[in-house]
Design brief:
Distance between the termini: 50 Å
Structural class: alpha/beta
Bound molecules: pyridoxal-5'-phosphate
Oligomer: single chain
CATH architecture of the largest domain: 3-Layer(aba) Sandwich
Strand content: 15-25%
Number of domains: 3
Largest sheet: 7 strands, mixed
């Protein structure tokens, strides 16, 4: 053995010692440490100088970072309600309870209980969904991206595969979702019409050929165009489509079921009901954005089109599992139950949107009071701006309240990091010399946890 290699720590003892600290399964830690020691061996052989202590510390830091990547709860102090990096929409308590019931036992997923025969998957959910959005028919798949691909694959056949889209709607949603690329992978041929800022009915009309499969509208979920702009009314576009017997499809993105402008001082987000009433034949939207359900993509509209989509072989590849179906069923029922009294909703996004700043202020005061005097920082209350996020309503500005932490002893970055890596993790945002924790996205039942984490770090 080269003498340089003598400083390498023995794998198993180090792994066993570290496994206790990170609380991960031992085989996983052993394998992790083995890989790191091997990497160090290579470096030492290449002439890197080091010592055992440095190597052990390096491996421990990497293991800590790996342990922190394990999926775990996070307290969201960012003020962004649908935070894509923090798991988008949280679920209501009823939905979570239903999930546990179905998850820990058997269910009638594909079983007809009255007849004792094989049953239809998601039959109840599909009826409830159609009822909620006032559609002839509806179904659900794994996410909205899959829903759009499925729709395109079904409606673009052979030569008849041209999809007309306005140049102002060739959007990128994030996470690799770009309309032109989605079209390409679905075997559709993109036909762009109009200009970035203006598209007229005549532009669509001129682009129609015998090979036109559909006209596609895509909601500009995460950006806004303003100024010298124009686009045809959906009703006009629908008439044009009917004249040529071409389905009008709209990806509405977010799936807000309520008038968002009535809930909070934010923009009106187009609802599925509105799109369908105006004559769109088929829509798709996400289940885990403003709807506040599980990750899923909902397809709704004309029953012949929905039935066709469900017959696609690709449907099988993107169908929802029983856990998603359970949560989605619970979320949809919750909307149907509270349609007449939206303020009674159990959907966390909607509840969070409706909280008055005064209420947040009271919570912030009592939270700061509970933390008490701390030598390491100064805590105060500040007005803040929350947003819906998640690629919805880019202009939303919801008046909110945040706890403003001005660290004295430690650096701002260090404080933010300590909050992120403890249990439960807390994610806030920095503003000048302060760390802000917005209370609109922190549930009231999490206040105690925030107090204990802040006390632990700051006193
Ligand atoms: C968010 C969004 C999508 C993607 O939805 P996923 O459910 O994340 O797949 C597609 N289209 C629009 C317009 C969106 O806003």
């Amino acid at each position: 053995m080269s003498s340089a290699l003598k400083i390498l720590p023995p794998i198993e003892p180090l792994a066993f010692q570290l496994a206790r600290a990170v609380k991960l399964p031992k085989p996983l830690v052993v394998s992790f440490v083995r890989k790191e020691v091997t990497a160090w061996r290579k470096q030492l052989l290449e002439g890197t100088e080091s010592d055992r202590d440095t190597i052990e510390k390096d491996i421990e830091a990497k293991l800590q970072a790996f342990a922190a990547s394990r999926l775990q709860p996070v307290i969201n102090g960012t003020g962004v309600l649908i935070h894509t990096n923090l798991g988008r929409s949280p679920l209501g308590k009823t939905a979570a309870a239903a999930l546990e019931q179905i998850a820990t036992g058997y269910s009638n997923l594909e079983f007809n209980l009255p007849d004792g025969t094989r049953g239809k998957r998601a039959g109840y959910l599909e009826t409830a969904l159609a009822c909620l959005v006032n559609a002839e028919s509806a179904t659900a798949v794994n996410n909205c991206a899959a829903a759009l691909v499925l729709i395109l694959r079904h409606l673009c056949v052979g030569e008849k595969n041209e999809v007309i889209v306005s140049r102002s709607e060739l959007v990128e949603i994030g996470g690799g979702f770009r309309v032109p690329e989605i079209l390409e992978t679905s075997g559709a041929k993109l036909v762009e019409v109009g200009a970035t800022n203006k598209t007229h009915l005549a532009d669509y009309a001129k682009a129609i050929t015998p090979n036109t499969a559909i006209i596609l509208k895509v909601h500009r979920s995460n950006f806004y165009i303003e100024g010298f702009t124009a686009e045809p009314d959906i009703a006009e576009l629908s008439t044009l489509c009917k004249e040529h017997d071409i389905p009008l499809v709209e990806d509405i993105g977010s799936g807000a079921m309520m008038n968002t402008d009535e809930l909070a001082p934010i923009d009106h987000e187009p609802t599925p009901q509105e799109a369908l009433t105006k004559g769109v034949d088929l829509i798709c939207f996400s289940g885990d954005k403003l709807l506040g359900g599980p990750q899923s993509g909902i397809i709704a509209g004309r029953s012949d089109l929905v039935a066709g989509v469900k017959k696609e072989p690709f449907f099988r590849a993107v169908r929802c599992d029983k856990l998603i179906l359970t949560v989605l069923q619970e979320s949809i029922d919750e909307y149907l139950r509270t349609q007449a009294a939206p303020t009674k909703t159990d959907v966390p996004n909607l509840k969070a949107l409706a909280i008055k700043p005064e209420e947040l202020k009271q919570r912030a005061l009592s939270l700061i009071d509970s933390v008490g005097e701390c030598p390491e920082a100064e805590l105060s209350i500040t007005e803040s701006i929350a947003t819906t996020g998640g690629g919805t309503m880019p202009r939303s500005k919801i008046p909110s309240i945040a706890i403003k932490i001005t660290p004295r002893g430690i650096s701002l970055n260090k404080l933010a990091q300590q909050l992120r890596v403890g249990t439960p993790a807390i994610v806030g945002y920095t503003q000048e010399k302060h760390l802000l924790l917005d209370l609109r996205t922190i549930f009231d039942w999490q206040d105690e946890l925030v107090v204990s984490r802040l006390s632990e770090i700051l006193s």
